[in-house]
Specification:
single chain, 215 residues, mainly alpha, 80% helix, 0% strand, elongated
Length: 215
Amino acid sequence: FHASVVHLYRGEMHRMTVWRQRLDVTTNWAILLTGGMTTFTLGSPSVPHFILLLGLALIAVSMIIEARRYRHLHHSNWRIHLLEARYFAALLEGRGEAEGWRELLAHELRRPRRLIGWFTAIKVRLRRNYLLLLYFITAVWIAKLFIHPVDAVDFPEFWARLAVEKMVPSWLVAATATAFVVVSTFLALTAKSAEALEEQATGEVLRDEVQRGSS
């Protein structure tokens, strides 16, 4: 039994490492995308400014993909913590393994569940990495509007440049971009940290054990 648990622990560690690497890949691609698009749009006055708005949309897509991967990573962290806290720690203390953890882990292996929701994962990744990227590309977009094709001399000229050709008026572009940045900032400020989510998951483990013990 102990040898099987050790192999299970190694497998969970490998699973967590893979999901961590996938998170890093998504973040790296978002950073490269941001740097490439800003360099491309600022490098030539003929490049339209709405290319950066498309960059905002692509960053949002990357954030959604990363949120899904973070849910899997968080679940792997939870199972590793369950093994470390309820099995290995008890053996190291010399008092034998704790009760209730086998049934809980077996239930999770049969019917895996995600301890955090998709929306919560988006907020966490937004707070962790993507909010700064959104701020950066928004600042570059505003700078692009000011300097290309020539420096704007007054606010009406700057406002007129917000329009996307003749399809989207300036007020709609400004309202959409402002709402996107404000909502993203609010979500990031109201998100829990990764450490707080881990403590919450630990508390759920303990509550599940208490409920199983009382039943």
